[in-house]
Design a protein that fits this description.
Layout lengths: L4 E9 L3 E8 L5 E7 L6 H16 L8 E7 L2 E7 L4 E2 H5 L6 H20 L12 E4 L4 E4 L44 H15 L9 H10 L5 H4 L5 H10 L11 H18 L26 H14 L4 E7 L6 H5 L3 H6 L3 E6 L10 H15 L3 H15 L3 H5 L6 H4 L10 H19 L6 E6 L6 H12 L6 E7 L9 H11 L4 E5 L5 H12 L3 H15 L3 H13 L3 E4 L10 E4 L1 H6 L6 H10 L3 H13 L5 H8 L7
Helix pairs in contact: 3-4, 3-8, 4-7, 13-16, 17-18, 19-20, 20-21, 21-23, 24-25
């Protein structure tokens, strides 16, 4: 292996990488060398490193670090990056305090760099002072480290332990925690930018707790102390800009990097001309040309309140069952995900499983999926915590641990190998399983950590699962336990086994709350469209009526149809200001939309979208569908018989 550089010194070490200053042998030019720390990295780690190199190399702007080459380094990989003599803002912050002029100059340059990243449809996902490099002599600033960046316009996350979250925990946006019922998009970077600006001016983080779960809760539910209250000399306008960046929901933040830059620029101009900064109106030039459908729930306020009230009762020591019914795409899962915030506050656990129409012959499939998720979370905890769980589970199960391991094999990773169990007849075996599963469940349903289980698609549940649900809910010793079930009521007839199970549960005097989700009403559809297109509801009313007629108010179909109209250029962003001083706005022609044959069936719409993909992508999607309703790149690449990069 021909190495064409000299390593000078190590300048940074992260959990995954080592970063060195080096020089090229041929011309002595300085470079930065970023090497994977693991000497024998996995295929997925190598794929991710290659992706980081490709994303970094794809930029061609001065405000983003340049990638020169990707080379083998022993059994691993090294990325060769430019060295422009800068230091990270984190390093500079430890050396001196930024004055207002310095801060504004750096803030504007950082925002420009972020604008270039977003223009390329990349979400950085790890904006923080360590990933912003500045050279005070040349005034050059560059954003670095695209290790977890994504080129998706939107990405949905599942709930994982704080230690498994992507990004730097002190800087991640609320939606990056997976506990906000919304995916991440480019505006997640604005929250991280707000935390960075806060730290540059105060040398403190908005939330200084070192407890990971507490920090997650702070991001999603606590308001940081406004800057001007912490440091009275800070102008209100700068404090307000940073507070807007730190808004909990993306819709309340700035909607474009140029909008942020415009306000910062106004502050700098005022400071340079009159020596002070007055209160300025924010976001006057903050028009977003990205098509972004708001992720908040419309028309579900009453149902959300019912859900949260029930969880509040559970956190005081009750056991409850909530059933949510409605058509496919009506928003059952979206409603359930609203519960993440209070669960985090109570340090509870949320796990979920989904019955599969094609796996009805596998007993307990959805319940096992949910508990596999829980065990994976526990396995990420420190050794002392894991030992504690092991003791509790063994205390509850005694020598009968194998009964649970047979259906949830991952449990063995916590409690170790267990003695074989005595063979019994079918009925006795079923009763024994139900008894020990109740005991197993009770380990996780405690005052310190209530448990919420969400089981979706109950219309496809097998009989043993329904029997177990009945047993669990009829147990009057249950506490701190909430079971949420969702099903398509149009697929459940009066003779369906689910109906029989629910009757038995109600007979046992268990409180069963029922929520039926109806299609969205026209006023909510209109509000959603007006929020999406950033205009008044009077303007969007005719479009809303047309969309309501086509979709029947089904939220999933509604968002798919709006995306289709945008992709087919029926909704167009007009960047030109009008004579009436109205700023950039969206345009559509109702007659054109009405004249085009738009299907009334969401399946047809999805089929059309899939058919527009190239043949290779369609083939991979077919394989993904065969795996099930959840899959990852590793499994998909094995089934596809190709590398992860190709897949």
């Amino acid at each position: 292996m021909n190495i064409n550089y000299h390593i000078i010194k190590k300048i940074y070490e992260s959990p995954n990488s080592l970063v060195y200053r080096a020089t090229l042998k041929e011309n002595n030019n300085p470079i930065i060398l970023k090497i994977l720390k693991e000497n024998y990295p996995t295929a997925s780690e190598l794929t991710r490193y290659k992706q980081e190199y490709e994303i970094t190399r794809s930029f061609n702007v001065d405000s983003i670090i340049k990638a020169y080459d990707l080379q083998r380094y022993e059994n691993s990989l090294a990325i060769l990056l430019e060295d422009f003599g800068g230091q990270s803002l984190k390093s500079l912050l430890s050396q001196f305090k930024f004055n207002l002029e310095n801060f504004l100059t750096i803030a504007i340059k950082t925002t420009e760099s972020l604008a270039a990243i977003h223009k390329s449809n990349i979400i950085h996902k790890d904006i923080n002072p360590s990933n912003i490099v500045y050279n005070p002599q040349t005034k050059q600033l560059k954003i670095i480290d695209f290790g977890i960046s994504t080129s998706l316009s939107q990405k949905f996350l599942t709930v994982v332990s704080p230690k498994q979250l992507e990004g730097t925990l002190a800087y991640i946006a609320p939606e990056q925690t997976g506990r906000m019922n919304r995916g991440i998009d480019y505006r997640s970077d604005f929250y991280s930018l707000g935390v960075t600006f806060y730290e540059l001016l105060t040398n403190k983080l908005p939330f200084e707790t070192t407890d990971p779960m507490e920090l997650v809760h702070c991001h999603i539910a606590q308001q940081p102390l406004p800057l001007h209250q912490l440091i009275p000399d800070i102008p209100h306008s700068i404090s307000n800009i940073i507070s807007k960046l730190l808004a909990k929901t993306p819709e309340e933040r700035y909607q474009s990097a140029w909008g942020i830059k415009a306000d910062l620029q106004t502050c700098l101009e005022q400071f340079n001309t009159i020596g002070e900064i007055s209160d300025i109106p924010l976001a006057t030039q903050d028009i977003c040309e990205k098509f972004q459908i708001p992720q908040k729930l419309y028309g579900r306020e009453q149902e959300v309140e019912q859900l949260l009230t029930t969880f509040e009762k559970v956190s005081l020591g009750t056991a409850e069952l909530i059933l949510i019914s409605g058509y496919s795409g009506i928003g059952k899962s979206a409603l359930v995900n609203e519960i993440h915030k209070p669960i985090t506050k109570k340090r509870g656990q949320f796990i979920s499983g989904k019955f599969d129409q094609l796996q009805r012959d596998i007993p307990y499939s959805a319940i096992c999926l949910a508990f596999q998720e829980l065990i994976r979370k526990l396995l990420s905890e420190p050794e002392i915590s894991l030992q504690n769980w092991k003791n509790k589970i063994l205390e509850a199960l005694g020598n009968n641990g194998q009964i649970i391991i047979d259906v949830i094999p991952e449990v063995e990773k916590i409690i170790g190998q267990q003695p074989a169990i005595e063979q019994l007849g079918a009925a006795e075996s079923q009763n024994r399983f139900n008894l020990f599963f109740k005991r197993f469940l009770s380990v996780f349903c405690q005052k310190e950590h209530p448990l919420v289980i969400f089981i979706d698609d109950l219309q496809w549940a097998d009989l043993p699962s329904l029997n177990l649900i009945e047993q669990l809910m009829s147990d009057d010793e249950n506490q701190y336990f909430l079971l949420i079930g969702a099903y398509r009521d149009n697929e459940v007839s009066p003779t369906h086994p689910l109906v029989n199970t629910l009757e038995k549960i109600k007979t046992a005097q268990v409180v069963v709350s029922e929520i039926n989700l109806d299609p969205l009403k026209i006023d909510r559809i209109n509000q959603l469209i007006a929020d999406t297109l950033n205009c008044f509801t009077e303007t969007t009313q005719p479009l809303a009526e047309l969309v309501a007629k086509k979709t029947g108010g089904n939220p999933f179909f509604l968002t798919q149809l709006l995306n289709y109209l945008y992709q087919e250029n029926f909704l167009v962003f007009n960047p030109h200001k009008q004579q009436d001083a109205r700023q950039s706005y969206w345009q559509w022609y109702l007659e054109e939309i009405e004249s085009v044959s738009i299907t009334d069936n969401v399946v047809d719409l999805m089929v059309r979208k899939i058919e527009k993909l190239d043949k290779k992508t369609q083939k991979v999607l077919k394989l993904a569908a065969c795996i099930g309703n959840k899959f990852n790149l590793e499994i998909l690449s094995i089934v596809n018989n190709k590398s992860q990069t190709v897949t």
